[in-house]
Structures are given as C-alpha cells and as structure tokens.
Amino acid sequence: MEPIALSAALASFTEQWSPRIVTAVNDYDVRVAKVEGDHVWHVHDRTDEFFLVLDGELHISLREPAGERTVVLPKGSVFTVPRGIEHKPYAPAPTAILLFEPTGTLTVGDRHDDVPDHVDATTGHALR
Amino acid sequence: MEPIALSAALASFTEQWSPRIVTAVNDYDVRVAKVEGDHVWHVHDRTDEFFLVLDGELHISLREPAGERTVVLPKGSVFTVPRGIEHKPYAPAPTAILLFEPTGTLTVGDRHDDVPDHVDATTGHALR
Fold first, then answer.
1. Per-residue pLDDT for B128 more than 90?
2. What is the pLDDT of residues B64-85, one digit of tens each?
3. Where is the Cyclic nucleotide-binding domain (chains A, B) (predicted)?
4. How many Å apart are CA A34 and CA A56, to the nearest integer?
5. Per the domain annotation, does B80 fall within a domain?
6. Which residues of B touch A26 (CB under 8 A)?
7. Does the beta-carbon distance from A80 to B49 stay under 8 Å?
8. Is residue A106 part of a domain?
9. Using CB atoms within 10 A as the burial measure, which of A113, B68, B100, B123 is most buried?
10. Which of B7, B23, B76 sits opposite A50 (nearest CB)?
C-alpha cells in the first residue's frame, strides 16, 4: 500500500453525493465525497458519522430532542453526528468532504425521506 | 456539540507528539497532533492506525514482512498502517496530523523501543 493524496482521489471521479472509499481502518471506512446542494433527511440508528470539510462549506441540519438546528462547517472543520439523530447535509457551493464511519454504512442511513435522483444510496464505491 | 475548526484545535496546545482528542466516533477517537523529528518504533497488535497530514510532511518507516521501507505523506495525503506492522513516524519539519484509531489506543503501541523524553506515551488528551 502507498499513501493516497486526497486531491488525486477527488480528481478521479465527478459524481456528487457518491462517496469513494479511500482506505479502511479495521472495520471502518475513510470515504471522500464531492457534494453540492441538498442531501436527504436520514438517520443512522446504530452509528455516529464523522465529517471533515476538505474544501468548500458543509451545512448539516439536525433534528435533536431540543429542536431543529443547522451547524455550519467551513473548510478544515469537523463534526460528528451522533447515532439516532436525523440529519440532512447541504452544501451551498461545490464542496469536498471526508467521512469516517463503519464499513457498510449506507449514505442514506437506516431510515430516510424519498431519495432524490442526485443522491447515490450506496455503502461507498471503490477508488479506481 | 458544535463543529470544531482543526486550526483552532491545533492552536490550543504546543506539545509535540502529544495527541489531542478532537471528537469521538462510536468507540474511535479522532485526534490531532503536532509533530517534528522522530517518534519511536512501535507496533499496535490489535488495530490499524490512520494518518492524514494536515500540514507539513510525515514519513512513516515500516518493518514489513518483505523488508523495511519508508512512505512519505505530503500535506493532504492519507495512509493506514496495518495492525501488527512495526512503524516509526518522522517529520522533517513542523507538521500537523489527524489520526483515527480506537479509543484507548496508546501512542507508543503495545510494544515499543525505549520512549524518548520528547514522545508522550498517552491515549490522547482532551481538547481544552
């Protein structure tokens, strides 16, 4: 195995909201994705989900017990969505993110709103 | 919980080779560290270890079955050291890294050479 430049990984595909698996850490994946516009409201019942913004800006709306709010992650920021919290990512402009989550985690979670055509319901694609 | 800017996390401490825990993802930690010079040869018998270079350049020497080699990670590159592979990180200049590994993972692994004074043998410190 050799180191992987995230810029090269991101340059290897064009699809939005369609994560690529960069490497595995035990039974977790490190994934990168290009995103813009709305994802879909969804929830992972059994796992937290980690976001790092590599470029651009990611908004994550959260439906917490206390109510709904949106956190904003500028480039270089991180946030973990706790398991069981319904959330919807959104990017106002082309954005690149890195995700850390258990292998097999579905992009649209265990429960979700109707998945629009521009969102890829996947457990991540291999990097080519 | 609020998003955390990695730049602010890194600005909150000065110690080298002394990771700070930025957030948790299930039973894994996301840690950041400032590093320069040599770490120590060590091995994690039961876990892989993920490195992302945020700034600077990290070298990781590896003692693999086929022999010893060193991988070089420029800024923006990632690498996973497989469990059971003895390794020694080294940074030729001040460098910032992000790590994913199970909570409780010791910086010097399960087996290691003598730990020099400049290396902090820790499972990670809380971010203040």
1. no
2. 999 999 999 999 999 999 999 9
3. 9-79
4. 10
5. yes
6. 47-48, 83, 102
7. no
8. yes
9. B100
10. B23
